[in-house]
Amino acid sequence: MWPVGCRTGTxxxxxxxxxxxxxxxxxxxxxxxxxxxxxxxxxxxxxxxGLVRFQTIFSREFTHTRSxxxxxxxxxxxxxxxxHRHDPDEVYHLLxxxxxxxxxxxxxxxxxxxxxxxxxxxxxxxxNGDSTVLRFLYVFALDSFEDxxxxxx
Length: 153
Known about the structure:
- The structure is a single chain.
- The chain is an all-beta fold.
- The chain has strands spanning 10-13, 18-21, 24-26, 42-46, 50-58, 69-75, 80-85, 90-96, 98-103, 106-111, 115-118, 124-127, 134-140, 151-152.
- Strands 4, 5, 6, 7, 8, 9, 10, 11, 12, 13 and 14 form an eleven-stranded antiparallel beta sheet that branches. The chain has a three-stranded antiparallel beta sheet with strand order 1-2-3, with no helix packed on it.
- A hairpin with a 2-residue loop joins strand 9 and strand 10.
- The radius of gyration is 18 Å and the shape is globular.
């Protein structure tokens, strides 16, 4: 007998929080509520990737989510994210601060409230030229941040 809500060919593995579907173990999506303060920040500080702090909020590795990866990046005064490319489309939405975004060789002045759609393979980066923090939300239509292969310029 199949568990309620499962279609034939899907097996629930409750102890692991996984289901088997078409021969692969996958983590089902579930509603998730979290807070940024509960997420360990990561940081890059090198001459290629930049001087940036980030917290990935939703990603398959640690949340019951799929088809979306989202996080917040923070650039202190003089901070920057190196110019790079990757295959998936990406969206930035600036939460606070001001800076300069680079998209395929064109510079754009951005500030809190600005949104950027960055098509896959577009060279892009961002720099904080202000004396305050620049924070932005980033979103990929992917299951996992680990699926993004960064190619820095």
